[in-house]
């Protein structure tokens, strides 16, 4: 199962890099969102599934499940959604001001 998830992470990173290399601003934003989700999936896969009791002090549990990696990934997901929303608002505002979402046109200088 972990091999399948690793292949999925590779496919997501490939799609994200393809979108990041695009000239369209919306595709670049979607590429960053897909890349962040690929990293979240990779980190969850690396953490693995641990079975055990809840980590309560005072109990003599031989094995317990640490909830910190899941909490950190959940926080990272919320932050990536907020950053994606902010970038989409910036892209909308840029399009309203300039009338284009082509990154080459937004550079403002011509290539030699």
UniProtKB/TrEMBL annotation:
Principal subcellular localization: membrane
Places the protein is found: Cell membrane
Keyword annotations: Cell membrane, Membrane, Transmembrane, Transmembrane helix
Keyword Cell membrane: yes
TM ranges: 6-21, 28-47, 67-92
Keyword Aminoacyl-tRNA synthetase: no
Family matches, as Gene3D superfamilies: 1.10.287.3510
Membrane topology: Multi-pass membrane protein
Pfam family for this entry, one: Oxidored_q2
Family as reported in the entry's similarity comment: Belongs to the CPA3 antiporters (TC 2.A.63) subunit C family.
Alphabetical list of PANTHER family matching this protein: ANTIPORTER SUBUNIT MNHC2-RELATED (PTHR34583:SF2)
Protein name: Na(+)/H(+) antiporter subunit C
Organism: Sporosarcina soli
Lineage, broadest ranks: Bacteria, Bacillati, Bacillota, Bacilli, Bacillales
